[in-house]
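Let's do one together. I've listed all components of the complex below, 1102 residues spread over two lines.
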Amino acid sequence: MKNFSIKHPENDGGMNPRIKRLRKESIETPATLTIERALIETAFYKENYGKYSIAVHRARNFYEICAKKTIYIGPDELIVGERGPKPKAVPTFPELTCHSVEDLHVLDTRELQPYHISQEDIDTYEKEVIPYWKGRTQRERIFGHVSKEWEEAYHAGVFTEFMEQRAAGHTAMDGKMYTMGLLDLKEKIARRLEKLDYINDPKATNRQEELDAMSISCDAAILLAERHAKLAEEMAAKCADPVRKAELEKIAATCHWVPAHAPRDFQEALQMYWFVHLGTITELNGWDSMNPGHIDQHLYPFYKKGLEDGSLTYEKAKELLSCLWIKFNNQPAPPKVGITARESGTYNDFTNINIGGIDRDGNSAVNDISYMVLEVQEELHELQPGLSIHIAENTPDDFLIEGIKVIRQGHGYPSVFNPDTYVKELVRQGKTLEDAREGGCSGCIEVGAFGKEAYLLTGYLNTPKILEITLNNGVDPLTGKKIGLETGDPRSFKSFEELYNAWHKQMIYFVELKLAANNYIERMFSLYAPATFLSLWIDDCIEKGRDYYSGGARYNTTYIQCTGLGTITDCFTTLKKHVFEDKRYTMDQLLAAVADDWKQEEPMRLYIRNHTPFFGNDDAYADDIAVRVYNDLVSAIAGRPNTREGKTQLNMLSTTCHNYFGQMCGASVNGRFAHFAISDGTSPAHGSDTKGPTCVVRSLGKLDQTKSGGTLLNVRFIPALLRRQQDLEKFGGLIREYFKLGGHHIQFNIVDAETLLEAQKDPDNFRDLLVRVAGYSDYFNDMTAQLQNEIIARTENDEL
Amino acid sequence: MALIFDIKRYAIHDGPGIRTTLFVKGCPLRCVWCHNPESWSPVPQRLYKQGKCIGCQSCVNVCPQGALHLTPEGIRPTGKPCILCGACAEACPALAMEICGREWPMEEILAEVEKERGVMTDSGGGVTISGGEPMMHPKTVLPLLEELGRRGIHRAVDTTLYAKPELVQEYASRCELFLLDLKTMDSAVHKRYTGVPNELILSNYRLIASLGKRYWVRIPLISEVNATEDNIRASADFLSSLPLRPEVVDLLPYHDIGKGKHERMGTTYNPEGLPLSAPDGRQLARCENILKAAGLTVRIGG
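Okay, and this is what the predicted structure of the assembly comes out as:
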């Protein structure tokens, strides 16, 4: 294996002039909104809605877009295809949620993450798009259905809802597209259609509709590729530069071949993936866009073959891979509706590249492409894609150390995952061992069986908020509204058990509100938004003749993401120790102090901060409570049936939602001020871990993480701790130790507070400062001041 | 029981691998640049961090001796004797009051160490006993080292070597690695800056080397003390003449982190105002080159 060495970020390293130009263009082009997709779709719906089954209607709609959208091939490009008419132009999806004129103005002019759009386009949108969709969007269906209780809890910030604006996503691919083209799939569909039994199978007609729709989706994507081939040919004919002419001819030949057929060489393999990616993110706007899965395993055979037959060199392969990387960065996330979009504002669409880890047989899967991906990621360090390295017990140390060198650069990636744990998680959920091993993470930290599972994330649950409501006997103190159960005046509680049980009852109540609405929403996607192109790539949608959103996948999981484990644990230990055990403070005193945001009680607040056992210090007093809360959340959520013959599971993720959830909470008894962020994922609360990272990982290790579908641990390190080769090895030792304890994921923000403060004051000079947020990286400058402050406040490890 | 004032986990600069470092209290040297002056006294001490104090007088109110009072300069001793009961530290909301140093029963130390065993052994690390001067507490530290050895945990002792040779031998037989300072070859300068001459230390160096004991050397580089060509050349000659050479020599440019610590103890940093400054890049490079030329493995900032 070639011994790759990661270069310093200031050194452009191996980026050749083409990649430098494409990267610069990608980074400097502002995000824009395109109304092209909405116009094609609205016209199609107006003309055709009601003529076909919904599945066929959706597939024809997709065909229409592929047939009419603007085709773009930019100078220097080797891998082609954009979701919009040009790089960084993002379409809207009015069938799911229709932006108002006001939304479009806000998006155009807002300070953070603007999406520019012309007044002319806004006028057209107002005239052509908005009137048709009024009352017909998924969002309106959802909000028109949910109960008053659900809505109150939603607006109070008890939970969020993923699918009110975007389709369920978290989709990652297995290797089938590298051995089967769309013509092969069409053939497979035709054979399946022939076998339909309209007499004995009452669902045969449904299956036929879905299969017909899938077949149309194949034609649509082939057409899209052919249109690129045609444009490339036209450009080649006019091209005076013989080198570029040859490149355009190769692009044309590639697009004639894939995705209709299985790829034959490295470039075709990349272009194949890109067409599948584009199809998926054009058809719908799924969360976490789309993910190539174990790209190093998929690409390696093409790389090896190319080297062997002399058609490829290392440099050429790296250039092509870099071209694909730039394509990811050219697709900002579709923007939300609503003025604030408080939950999460980012251009990041969460494609998370998985490298390393294990193959279907459990062997180490690290190969030359794994290292090449590290190198490309390090050199390009764009916002997208994200990267994760997968470190099983049998993963070579070399790969871990090379990964750490990229971590050390402080771009916020790669994050680190433990296949030994997540394979257990997936097997526990009912996957076969092989399918589980083929799994990995998509998006942030959630894992699934790549190419075989539809796992829908439905929203975050604010566990500290539920405690706040419990401590106010069912009332949300921020609004004075009663939104929860009356579980008793906490001043009357005689024991910690009584308090805990009240929270537990309240938690079950809110979980069930969420579950009920989840099932309705899933059903709406099944009925109105089948994903007939995506279904082609997910086993066993063709065999079952069922859609990705209707239980067609081999595995069908629904997730609720619980947040704030650190904060709620610390609140419980505070109450247990100081109110019920030591009786230093009465419940009344504490409640009065938090109601007043500690204004008159700074000594009490400090005493609690400094004299309470908190989560993250390997202290059984706190960790036992964390384990109890976690286990109770698992019991409340895991195993509940969804509408797709699958089950609901829990994972412990917050992305940026711990900030929004913090805003929606008053002060909490652990000494947290009102509206400050709650803890993220399963990380300790801000400033609660004071004994260093080994204690943090041991506290986390006490959770049986295999019961979840993912946990998130965020640790900040300053570069000073990663200077020497031996530091990298020790850092690797810390990661290995956490994974031995059953850790699922760990990620690092490598940056010093001084740099961040400087960046806050002088944003212009820190445009490319990427930091890890929670499950993904973002530009520091693109964050709200609140999120920036939170990142600065996260426990520094420099005093260890 | 051992008088420990701090336990540092994920210690990556105190020997090989990830280590757990135990800091014992009490030291025969008084290096003016010391960044752990709270380690000097071999008995527990009350420390006060004025920057953290919120003036709430919780400490004043709980002190059974009436030993504290609030003054415009913050909390100050009244002159009545402190019995180190710790009530003030327990009552202080802000962690401004601290009792530095506590007698830890051996089982408790071992329990803390055992928690770290996984990460220590996997990374090729272990326990480092630092200080203070570990050799000031043979009655507690030697049995501790012995027990750690019995449990198969790698042991490093971070010592000034200012101790009787017999004692050094005792420690040598109970650890795998010594972490040693080499401050200056000039005994007079050594005495001026550390309070003790260096002859005993240098002869203990020879003893360790003749015993075949592995050791690492750290030189805290200070322009006025040791960062001169003559001294570094003498240091290089000395180290390379030993029957066993150090595995590595770490050069640590001077920093004045010790200042803040003195304030907490109510003492003065560098009371005689001896000149102290960090070597510049050229000086540092020269030192490095001299040591390397003598065939030593040198690292900067180890």
